[in-house]
Amino acid sequence: MSVLHAPTYRWTVEEYEELGRAGIFNENDRVELLNGEIIVMSPIGYRHATAVNRLNQFLVARARQRFIVTPGNPFILDERSEPQPDLCLADVAIDTQGHHAGPEQIFLVIEVSDSTLAYDRKDKGPAYARNGVREYWLLNLADNVLEVFRDPASDGYRETRILRAEETIAPLAFPDVVLRVGDFLP
Question: How many Å apart are CA 69 and CA 58, to the nearest integer?
Fold first, then answer.
């Protein structure tokens, strides 16, 4: 039997977190759990880091205790997925509940992508939609555009848009937080 056709083990969030507690992974390891698979994440390049910093600074300044900006922090998407998106806008209650947020507490997920574009579009995007993440933005550094996904369904997002550098957008949950796409493109 070839490895391509061999059965694989699908991890649960509970098992994945136990690996961390046992010291198999530490906080510096760049891994995340998606659809039961432990994914090794790419190193963060300069453009990626700069875009995340700019978005984080802009969003934190506008949060005004209405949402929390969570840069690179995990949330529990389902029983087999604990992704670590570049940024999330989450319900302020997550700081006091004693566990990671669930998809119902996430207002917006933002991924900044250059080398991981296919993974962010074809794996993460559908997983976010399938689990009811209301809104997903993909800052595509390869093409210098923002891909916007809204209206989640079991087979993906029903609304998609591509915004150029000169265009503006606001998260659905916070229409007063208007961003100009070009301001976040290094």
Answer: 10
